[in-house]
Design a protein that fits this description.
- By secondary structure, the protein is α/β, with parallel strands linked by helices.
- The protein has a domain of about 80 residues: 2-Layer Sandwich (Nucleotidyltransferase, domain 5).
- Helix content is about 30%, strand content about 15%.
- The protein contains 3 helices and 5 strands.
- Strands 3-2-1-4-5 form a 5-stranded mixed β-sheet, with helices on one face.
- Helix 2 packs parallel to helix 3.
- The longest helix is centred in the first third of the chain and has 17 residues.
- The radius of gyration is 25 Å and the shape is elongated.
Length: about 140
């Protein structure tokens, strides 16, 4: 008589590992897309693009509600950076400007902001040691009017 096989009481985990690896890849691919940026409605102005001399400029974003964010680098344009106040901006920007004296400084301000608020941030940046401050704008839409 042939020997009977004993039923196997172990769980085969290989399919579960495959599913977990697929989920891991999906989460790794979608996680960078979930970051939220500062929503700024930039003014439109005809201007020439700036030559990219420095890969990590200091970008100060100003939302329409007056919130100010500071970000070092523009590789991830959606990254909102660190929220600062007008009072702490001089100290925070001063640290960066002392470490890297020739870093370009740009302001990305919502077009609905008061001109005085943008100028006050520019003044704070110049007090912190910025030799020049550039303004980031969107190119105008052709054909709209």
């Amino acid at each position: 008589m042939a020997a009977r096989r004993k039923p196997m009481s172990e769980i085969n985990v290989v399919p579960y590992i495959d599913v977990m690896l697929v989920l891991l890849v999906i989460f790794m691919a979608t996680a960078p897309l979930l970051t939220q940026g500062v929503v700024v409605d930039l003014p439109e102005a005809p201007s020439e693009p700036i030559e990219d001399q420095e890969s990590d400029p200091l970008v100060v974003s100003m939302r329409s509600d007056g919130a100010i964010f500071m970000n070092l680098g523009m590789q991830d344009a959606d990254d909102e950076g660190t929220r600062v106040t007008v009072f702490s901006l001089e100290e925070q920007a001063g640290k960066i400007l002392r470490a890297r004296a020739n870093v370009p400084v740009y302001i990305k301000a919502d077009h609905s902001l008061d001109y005085g608020e943008v100028v006050s941030v520019m003044t704070v940046l110049q007090k912190a040691g910025a030799t020049s401050v550039g303004l980031i704008t969107d190119p105008p839409q052709i054909g709209t009017g």
